[in-house]
């Protein structure tokens, strides 16, 4: 009986987590966090109401497979500063956004140099996801970082 309850609760949380938080509110973020904790996973949900360059929620999937060997983000874990090393072509820029465990965007910036140092002491300690995209919104790298203060 308890196992069946867990499965039903999981299905309910998952269906709520797939909704648009801009339309359905804070419950979507809470369902995402509860689902990940309950299932002991780090599923990243797509925000169905916000796509393109202004996406606020990371896309689903195994973020470790979305890596580009030409981009390094270090140190990991980080304390107060995070370095992003990339190979930008002349006159090109990339975007980097950092997301909290709820999938909410907490920091975004434009990478204009091959080495960018980002202060992260304004973010709480924890695990964050990041996405680096080109100016057209194409994914260059997505992965996790840990902040320890």
- Please, how many helices? 3
Radius of gyration: 17 Å
* Helix content estimate: 10-25%
**E-strand count:** 7
- Low-confidence runs: 1-5, 52-67
N-to-C span = 43 Å
Instruction: Assign the structural class, choosing from mainly alpha, mainly beta, alpha/beta, alpha+beta, or little secondary structure.
Output: alpha+beta
In what range is the share of β-strand residues? 25-35%
The main pleated sheet reads as:
4 strands, antiparallel
Order of neighbouring strands in the sheet with most strands: 4-3-6-7
Characterization of this structure:
Helix 1 crosses helix 3. Strands 4-3-6-7 form a 4-stranded antiparallel beta sheet, with no helix packed on it. A 3-stranded antiparallel beta sheet has the order 1-2-5, with no helix packed on it. A hairpin with a 5-residue loop joins strand 3 and strand 4. The longest helix is centred in the first third of the chain and has 16 residues, at 2-17. With 149 residues, it is of the alpha+beta class. Helices cover 23% and strands 30% of the residues. The chain has 3 helices and 7 strands; from the N terminus they run H-H-H-E-E-E-E-E-E-E. The protein folds into 2 domains: 2-39; 52-147, Sandwich (Immunoglobulin-like), CATH 2.60.40.
């Amino acid at each position: 009986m308890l196992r069946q309850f867990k499965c039903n609760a999981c299905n309910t949380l998952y269906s709520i987590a797939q909704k648009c938080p801009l339309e359905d509110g804070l419950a979507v973020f809470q369902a995402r966090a509860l689902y990940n904790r309950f299932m002991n996973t780090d599923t990243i949900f797509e925000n169905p109401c916000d796509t393109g360059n202004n996406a606020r929620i990371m896309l689903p999937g195994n973020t470790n497979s979305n890596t580009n060997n030409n981009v390094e983000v270090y140190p990991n874990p980080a304390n107060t500063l995070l370095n992003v090393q990339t190979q930008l072509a002349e006159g090109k820029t990339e975007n980097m956004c950092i997301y909290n465990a709820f999938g909410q965007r907490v920091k975004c910036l434009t990478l204009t140099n091959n080495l960018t140092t980002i202060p992260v002491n304004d973010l709480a300690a924890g695990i964050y996801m990041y996405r680096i995209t080109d100016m057209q919104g194409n994914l260059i790298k997505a992965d996790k970082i840990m902040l320890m203060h």
